[in-house]
Amino acid sequence: MEIALVDLAAEPDSSVGGGVRTWLAGIPNENTRRAYAGHLEHWLSWCAREGRDPLDASRDDVDGFFDSLRGAADPPTENTIRTRRSALTSWYTHLIDCGILADNPAASVRPTGCKVEGCPEATATGFARSTTAGTNPR
């Protein structure tokens, strides 16, 4: 099942749709907006296929999503995975800012090869839990 953000954003009473609309409207660069919209569509489609509500997503759901990307017949590049993670983190941060959610399930996911000082070692899945799990870095 594929999710089209255009259709989703048109749902007037949907927290997800409203969050998508206002989040995309706040991204000033058209290229970034288009790329992030595509990355969010991948996530929402995965959630729909897996029977997960994106508003109830857990860290394990986000890990499962990235595991599925890495295990695909034609997996995306590490750069694409990092950008997809940034898009998810940005969207969930926006939902927190709007009062729709309390936690960001994508905030503590660190891609393999993280060069940030203090970045935890990657796990076998290619991601590791941050020592700031459960916090909302801004």
Automatic annotation (TrEMBL):
A biological process term (GO) from this entry: DNA integration
A Pfam family reported for this protein in Swiss-Prot or TrEMBL: Phage_int_SAM_1
MF terms in GO: DNA binding
Keywords: DNA-binding
Spans traversing the lipid bilayer: none
SUPFAM superfamilies referenced in this protein's UniProt entry, alphabetically: lambda integrase-like, N-terminal domain
Domain Core-binding (CB) intervals: 14-96
Record protein name field: Core-binding (CB) domain-containing protein
Protein species of origin: Longispora fulva
